[in-house]
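Review box. Two proteins, two foldings.
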Amino acid sequence: MKMAVDLLENSPFKNFFIPGIMLLVFNGVFSLISAFLLLIHYRYAGIGVMFLGGVMIIWIVAQVFWLGWISWLQPTFLALGVFELIVGLYLDSQNNIGLFSGRHHGSHAH
């Protein structure tokens, strides 16, 4: 993919190397890890999905801040990040811990 480096003139980056590495790690490697955790039914997989949704939202907001709205893919991936966050919340509420579901397990002092 060939993109003009001029797009980055208002960003903290001089070229696409660092943003590319960040995309590879967060949207690539971490997504594969999260998918694996979901496949093995790891109890905290929902939190990983929420994290990835948050990363996607932050990435797109930062991109729009520095580059502006330059593609229909930006709102699409922003919506995908919100959806991923919601799915993560749902998955977390379905496990026995429910860290973000409001359910508390264990003993309570009375």
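Next protein.
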Amino acid sequence: MEEVRIQKNDRAVSFRVIEDVGEYIVFDMSMTGPARNRTSYSGGVFQEAWQAVEAILGEISIPEELRKYAHRF
């Protein structure tokens, strides 16, 4: 599993990649609500996972570490 933490202003997300099963998990690390509601996306489509990131952080560039996954599709 690879994890990249992304922060913008007072919000943060953990973007996790489980490469052997092709899954992306976006976890809201911000302290705004119960922990059970913090998983914003879990699935196999990078674009949908990135939309979940931007729903939390606003528009943001894809970090270099994650670009290899974005360009697979």
